[in-house]
């Protein structure tokens, strides 16, 4: 049989493919009415290919990808798709390897495009910012399927961008708007964050300022000024927030180990740049309140760490200043003057040792204060309810009557001295 060329009028491949059967898809079943249109079209295609001497209705990707890569040097994928009259998703799938072949009319349209001699469309730029932003968005639960409608592109386009070193200028400009748009929000896909953290991707918070657009900035490199993060970690340790607590708080943003946090806090080990912007929110929110790790708080007092209160009179980010720190204290000790200052409202819970906190709480309770009032007065926890529960737990535990008596005696002595001063003439008192 002599092969005959297919003309546009007689070529079934130029016909639009009928919709698939909702029950059987692209596998027609005998006797099924919705399967018949697709089955008849498929048979027409098969007979037309046989008459033309064509063995397959598909063009392998090994023929298309080299030609597409040549075209990409001069034009963008959307421009290629528009000029060839095909879907850009097909081109992205072919370039990424997701699709191994294409229908013959698609392949012939792509192969029939001549390679231009000059660039068409926008010039390309490095793709590092695109990669960083899409990965940071994944840490906020934004999958590529969720980002695609925001960017006005297809999901396969985002997948392709993550595999190349350069993207077009319009793509780069579009993606650069995402950080401001997604700041402080959460995406719909919770599994995306888990995969991102497991892959070691960094969230937006790890890129302070505009560093995400800086090609020379590496957040995993050693911080040239590690005191920013170390001072905050030590202030958290002073209030009882240990390495395990820090790791738990950062688990939804990045994967670090307790050993890492402990070395950053207690030793002079190098600290990655991403630690400071991630730890600072924890410092701002929790450093003034009692944490769950008393052993870490005792270690901080013995080794003379500065608390958040000690930094209240100094700039914690100044390279040469240091927070006001009293002499190292015995974690098991109880100073009557400090306990009375806390009773008077001059000190908060993190400035007291465990015995001092217990004595002050029991003494205030005997004065008729409720656990909620005591917790709020001593700044025990971020919320009133949490403070009340923590104080109630202390009241349910053992108490030291000697320490409580010291507070009472000192309070009586100071009250007597004040009455004596008020009763003394001004000239004598001066």
Compute the number of structural domains: 5
Question: In total, how many beta strands?
Answer: 4
**How many strands, what sense, and barrel or not for the largest sheet?**
2 strands, antiparallel
Mean pLDDT: 80
H-E string: HEHHHEHEHHHEHHHHHHHHHHHHHH
Poorly predicted regions:
1-9, 425-430
Topology:
Elements: H1 36-52, E1 58-60, H2 61-72, H3 77-84, H4 88-96, E2 101-103, H5 104-111, E3 124-126, H6 128-139, H7 144-151, H8 155-161, E4 166-168, H9 169-175, H10 178-182, H11 190-198, H12 227-238, H13 243-250, H14 258-266, H15 275-286, H16 294-302, H17 336-343, H18 354-366, H19 371-377, H20 384-396, H21 401-423, H22 426-429
Antiparallel strand pairs: 1-2, 3-4
Helix pairs in contact: 4-8, 6-11, 7-8, 12-14, 12-15, 12-16, 13-14, 17-18, 17-21, 18-21, 19-20
What can you tell me about this protein's structure?
The protein has 430 residues and is an all-alpha fold. The protein folds into five domains: 12-52, no CATH class; 58-111, no CATH class; 124-213, no CATH class; 227-313, no CATH class; 336-418, no CATH class. 51% of the residues lie in helices and 3% in strands. It has 22 helices and four strands. The strands form two sheets. The chain has a two-stranded antiparallel ribbon with strand order 1-2. A two-stranded antiparallel sheet has the order 3-4. Helix 19 (371-377) crosses helix 20 (384-396). The longest helix is centred in the last third of the chain and has 23 residues, at 401-423. Residues 1-9 and 425-430 have low confidence and may be disordered.
